[in-house]
Amino acid sequence: MLEQIFIRGFQREALEAAHKGWGVSCIIGVAAAGQEISTRPFQLVTGRTWKGSAFGGWKSRDQVPQLVEEYMAGKIKVDEFITHRFDFAKINEAFEVLHSGKG
């Protein structure tokens, strides 16, 4: 499965990178009002799947505040999973760290 945040122009490339027959591309996040995504129908009829998710499937009005409260209370551990922080300009370095197993 390919996951990506909603950055204009990358949705189609992510779908095309998904494997024919069973590949899944998941767009994570919310686009600006009026933004559209497009692809050639061939990409879908050959078995690729396009999915979308905001807040990881959590209901924003009811569940996200609860999630934040649990994080702030220390019930949900998140910080321990962050090993590095990179600016977008250093994305290649970030992938090198990821592929080296250090991230």
UniProtKB/TrEMBL annotation:
- Extract the signal peptide range: none
Keywords from UniProt, A to Z, are: Metal-binding, NAD, Zinc
Q: Is Kinase a UniProt keyword of this protein?
A: no
The cofactors named for this UniProt entry are: Zn(2+)
Query: Which BP terms in the Gene Ontology apply to this protein?
Result: formaldehyde catabolic process
The record lists the organism as Parascaris equorum
Q: Which InterPro entries match?
A: GroES-like_sf, NAD(P)-bd_dom_sf
Q: Which SUPFAM superfamilies match?
A: GroES-like, NAD(P)-binding Rossmann-fold domains
Family annotation (Gene3D superfamilies): Medium-chain alcohol dehydrogenases, catalytic domain (3.90.180.10), NAD(P)-binding Rossmann-like Domain (3.40.50.720)
Q: What is this protein called?
A: Alcohol dehydrogenase class-3
Q: Name one GO cellular component term.
A: cytosol
